[in-house]
Amino acid sequence: METTARAGASPLAAQKRVTPSKVAKIAQGAFLVRMRVASALFVVAFTAMIASPLCRAQVANSPVLQFEAWRKAVLAGDSGALASMYLDSVKIIAPGKETSNLKSELAYWNSWKSRGLKTLSAELQSQQEPQPGYHVFLVQLTLGVAENGAAKKYYVTVGQGYLERGATWKIAAEQREAETRLKAPAERKDLYPSDANAQKEIAEALASAARSHKRVLLIFGGNWCYDCHVLDEA
Q1: Between helices 102-114 and 63-76, what is the axis angle to 10°?
Q2: Torsion sign (Cα): 80, 82, 83, 85
Q3: Would you place residue 229 in the very low, low, confident or very high pLDDT band (cuts 50, 70, 90)?
Q4: Which of 18-22, 52-56, 142-146 is predicted least confidently?
Q5: For residue range 121-154, what is the model confidence (pLDDT) as tens digits?
Q6: Judging by beta carbons within 10 Å of its beta carbon (0-12, 13-18, 19+), is residue 197 exposed, middle or buried?
Q7: What fold does the segment set 23-176 form as a domain?
Q8: Is the pLDDT at 23 greater than 50, yes or no?
Q9: Which candidate in 26, 118, 142, 169 could, as Cys together with 162 as Cys, close a disulfide (CB 3.0–4.6 Å)?
Q10: C-alpha span between 32 and 91 (Å, rounded)
Q11: Eight-class DSSP state of 181
């Protein structure tokens, strides 16, 4: 038997030191859009954005609906529909900030169907409109896959820049991060109370364990710790 003590935030943690956020860059012409991944402006599901009739009317012929069409094309493995959503001159940045091309990017998204893709949901982490007719989304995708009879989830963060072209919107720029098995936190939250007394909690746990002849497992972390937030999402 084990007693678990979760130590609260230390004075160092209370200072809320924030590590540098990962930054995704989506470029279109001379415009450079900087989107912070770890400290997103807000999180909302795309389905919630188009749930009401009023909202659906407002986003008609919008980048929101175009993204939803893109999501459905990836889920269905519809390579033709997917290819038609990109400009021929699209700027692609692959994981590691390596410049890529449309053919390779399409091959990546189309490969998910052969990997057993069953579900695909999206959470909007931030959006910007750096100029009229150009809209940028930063999205975290959750891909549900059936692999060897087991259900697994993968997470991919992608930034897309949509350019208005007549009656539709085309993807003019895309940057994708490497897929992960753990979900990255969309926002920082207080995992540990700022007024916690870690030394006191540890002492109480040790005393309680001694009385009951149990061992103590100490779990420690801080609100400033990025990995702590990732593990909390797991």
Answers
A1: 50
A2: positive
A3: low
A4: 18-22
A5: 999 999 999 999 999 999 999 999 998 889 999 9
A6: middle
A7: Nuclear Transport Factor 2; Chain: A, (3.10.450)
A8: no
A9: 169
A10: 12
A11: S
Q: Over 70: is that where the pLDDT of 95 sits? A: yes
Q: Cα-flanking dihedrals φ and ψ of residue 110, to 5°?
A: -70, -25
Cα–Cα distances in angstroms (integers) from residue 74 to residues 7, 38, 43, 77, 156, in the given order: 43, 25, 22, 5, 13
Q: What tokens were used for 200?
A: 């006191």
* Residue 133: both structure tokens together: 């007719």
Tokens of 69: 């069409």
- In the structure, what pLDDT confidence band is assigned to residue 118 with cuts at 50, 70 and 90? very high
pTM exceeds 0.85, yes or no = no
Contact between 108 and 95 under an 8 Å Cβ cutoff? The reply is: no
The answer to whether residues 122 and 168 touch, using CB atoms and an 8 Å cutoff, is no
- Cβ neighbours around 140 below 10 Å, total: 21
Residue 6 has pLDDT above 80, yes or no: no
Of the candidates 75, 105, 110, the residue with the CA atom closest to the CA atom of residue 87: 105
State the pLDDT at residue 58. 43
Spatial separation of the C-alpha atoms in residues 50 and 83, rounded to whole Å: 24
Q: Which two tokens stand for residue 91?
A: 């700027």
| In contact, 162 and 170? CB cutoff 8 Å | yes
b/e code 32-44 from CB counts within 10 Å (16+ = b): ebebebbebeeee
